[in-house]
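Page header: ASSEMBLY MODEL / two components / 714 residues total.
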Amino acid sequence: MPTSSQSYPMNGGDDQHSYIHNSSYQKSAIDGIEEKTRQYILKKLDILNLNPDLKTFTIVDFGCSSGPNTFHAVQNIIDAVKLKHLNKNKENGVLPLEFQVCFNDLPNNDFNTLFKTQPPSSEREYFSLGVPGSFYGRVLPRNSVHIGLTSYTTQWLSKVPEQVYDKKSPAWNKTYIQCNNLIEEVTKAYKVQFTKDMKIFLEARAQELVPGGLMIALGQCVPDGVYMYETWPGILMDIISDCLLDIAKSGVTTVEKIELFNLPVYFPLYSELMGAIEQNKKFTIEMMETASHAMQLTNDFITSMFRAVLSTIIENHFGDGVVDELFDQVSKKLSKQPIDFEKCKEHMVYHVVLKRQ
Amino acid sequence: MPTSSQSYPMNGGDDQHSYIHNSSYQKSAIDGIEEKTRQYILKKLDILNLNPDLKTFTIVDFGCSSGPNTFHAVQNIIDAVKLKHLNKNKENGVLPLEFQVCFNDLPNNDFNTLFKTQPPSSEREYFSLGVPGSFYGRVLPRNSVHIGLTSYTTQWLSKVPEQVYDKKSPAWNKTYIQCNNLIEEVTKAYKVQFTKDMKIFLEARAQELVPGGLMIALGQCVPDGVYMYETWPGILMDIISDCLLDIAKSGVTTVEKIELFNLPVYFPLYSELMGAIEQNKKFTIEMMETASHAMQLTNDFITSMFRAVLSTIIENHFGDGVVDELFDQVSKKLSKQPIDFEKCKEHMVYHVVLKRQ
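Prediction written out in full:
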């Protein structure tokens, strides 16, 4: 069976290969936008004016994974909203706002680790809730969310477009395991799925957010005119698919299995991302910025990061034991021929703030 | 170290010893009150009148464990509230209510199993949220809950009273592992802790519930004049403590370790329970019923049930491997000298409905 409409969380637990120990790349991007998010809230958030009687402020992280980045991101928002509320109500002795934070991810996300590793209740300024469910659909009641955020999530599609498994289709993706932009019809199929998914994502959030509510999104896109196979994540994914073919030769897996494996991942072009956002008329774009990712990378670092992100989906398709063998092979290949980050085309980090009208 | 202010969830996962496969006793009691809860909601729930613009109805199960009883109990409430809302709004085309259900338990509860085993979102009429935190304290915002329920939970104290570990205290509990009412000072220490905990429990719920909101509680208490050592749960617990002493002889554990082990569990007398409820002036008692538990019991059944409930706390104190050995011993002892349920004094199931003024 092809790997399609299933759900694959980041690697749970807290060992060396877990997502919680391999998410500093994502954290670096979150840190980068922290001050801007804070300034935006302080200057422009108008929910508190629209709802002068507001007692509980609800923040949701859509696709939070098992931490710890999510705790950091929500605390930054709470600090800013608190300050804003305090400034506004200096003189009239209003009760302090109470905060609740909803941590959303797929039902098979490792919520146990999330709950065990969150700041203890004595140090937390918010009530903590876990919300299991796909964000490609409603996960919370209408008009219940004041600020939503999502970091590095919507590149995960709800499913792999089916044509890419079909040998008779011009969109057949051969033994590639990602949309690397080498086959035009594959790119087209992924783009169609991405556009559908973003439409559903934004429609669901539009229902969940209160008027004046903010949706803050952080992620990765590709500059117009750049191809995935020219960027380091695209190059690394193609190396992983080469290594799968290598270990197939020694019988650990088969070429047929590799042909039935494609990642439900699509990094949109900048123009595609903007198009997908603009089609939803319930939101106005308050801020849109792009930047290069500021972090210094090494081949070892990106290998560990991709292992934490991909091990669940790889294990699920190929079975136990393949992950170790595969990433040993990837490490060997990279130690002989490391990726030269200087020579790769840049992808972009985007930071967008949308306001619910 | 004595086992005191820690938290010990029911046995997680879904194997033969898990709580989800050993909670039919609790389910039988929940079933017993289903129709009465339903009738009460249909006839007397007035939240919908107090909040005519209500869009989202929030139900919380405090101390839900890992399922499946909780899903059954909340569905019953949702069905009744829906019917009531429909009857009330037959003619004026009001939008249907949306429901959110918060599943609360300690942060080390097995939420992963809870989320994986809940009804799939396509069949669920509510948004599902997990709330990790001790119910002896606030876990949700002020005025945010319409109906709270709690089943077989408040006998779990926030901690064991410390005197029961102190050899010099008249409240020393020797090698007993429960409050079996054989030592008056031990009973007194447990009663003080129960009264404190119930006060905190009810104060927290009073803050979380909206005016007119209901708190439905189901649990077990002891008729005035009956002692725990005369009831089958008390007898079984004393057998478990005897068996701990037996396996200590073979070196699996030590008498010193047993002396440092006491369960944070207290089943109040009926009058103590009523006293604890009545001291909170924010609630009115709308219904209070007691009954005998209707289920036919066998020695095997109660052994499996107690194993599911106690294995985490036993393992935590005595270490790996003791649970198997201990319950083998309990089974042997019971097969030679089974508990005769006919001869035990009855304990009571209570069902109380409180309304937030």
